[in-house]
Amino acid sequence: MRSHGYAALTKSAPLTPYSFDRRDPGPLDVAVSIDYCGVCHSDIHQARGEWGRGIFPMVPGHEIVGRVTAVGSDVTRFKVGDPAAVGVIVESCLACVNCEQDLENYCVKGAVDTYNATTYDGAPTMGGYADSIVAPEHFVHTLSPKLDPAGAAPLLCAGITTYSPLRHWGVGPGKKVGVIGLGGLGHMALKFAHSFGAHVVQFTTSERKIADAKRLGADEVVMSSDADTMKRHAGSFDFILDTVSAEHDINAYLQLLKLDATLCLVGIPEQPPAIHPFSVIANRRSFAGSGIGGMRETQEMLDYCAEHGIAADIEVIGFDKLNESYERVLKGDVKYRFVLDMKTLGKA
Ligand code: NAP
Ligand code: ZN
Questions:
Q1: pTM score > 0.85 for this model?
Q2: DSSP state letter for 156
Q3: Is residue 305 part of a domain?
Q4: Which of these, 37, 82, 202, 255, could form a disulfide with 213 (CB 3.0-4.6 Å)?
């Protein structure tokens, strides 16, 4: 199957039109014609080689929604024409202790990313900045007609990456929860934590986002540069989710945790963070991490969003604005996720 999209040919090149072959759908595969794909900060990190591993040419994109165009003979959950979605992984061993618990994202053999990876057969994977994708049914999600497809696309990464740790650490009524960074992930974390009934404090470096944070569900908004306010919150949080994409001082936030509370990192800055031992020794705090979510939980999250009217706040763009969108994300100039409209492919 010929697929047309946009790729980074090297880590220093802008994204340009690129055509490539997808495998024909096998018995367990679903072929999807892509309508929308979100632009995640992970796309930028990887297209620019910031995580030290880059397979080029690279077609980024792992927030994919579209419609089914073909199904393999053993596929049971989809038929041609159904809405469908693909997220950050497209293969795992499905047999290890973690896969057996529906945690394919923590597959012992290693889950295969939707792009910038190779399948177990050794073929390079290509992401959703393209007109089609083929993936095993197990890694394809159904989409409720209640969800707007463009607004749902970012749920496949920004949504599940924040939903999963908030659920895992029991965020809900009576809990004081912090979200650091109001970007693509941060604004979904804020919506979910608010929806789960927690008292939510949004931390931001951007004064211009304060009103939006309140509109999106924050009970309080703290400018992280405001030392007095930061001090007032010391030792008071049950859980903090750190979604920041660049270097920042995590110790300043660890100090805000109460006894036995956890700060969970989901942001992946290029440089590793420096943690002061006393930041975690005091109050017996935990410093944790979390990566996307399993397939069962991703479907649960999509269904939760459909039921509760939750979607990403998006700006739909054409491919002519793709490279510019990367620069705007890096400047924090996005409310709060860019989503590529596949109808603009070939017209850029
Ligand atoms: P994004 O939209 O760019 O949001 C990041 C936010 O971080 C910005 O909006 C900004 O919020 C804050 N920020 C940026 N630079 C900062 C700095 N120098 N100091 C302090 N705060 C800063 O990015 P995203 O798409 O949400 O992704 C966030 C991170 O999560 C990325 O590193 C991405 O690779 C990672 N990620 C991880 C997973 C996972 O499974 N763990 C999945 C997806 C993405 P304010 O303006 O409010 O300060
Ligand atoms: Zn992502």
A1: yes
A2: G
A3: no
A4: 202
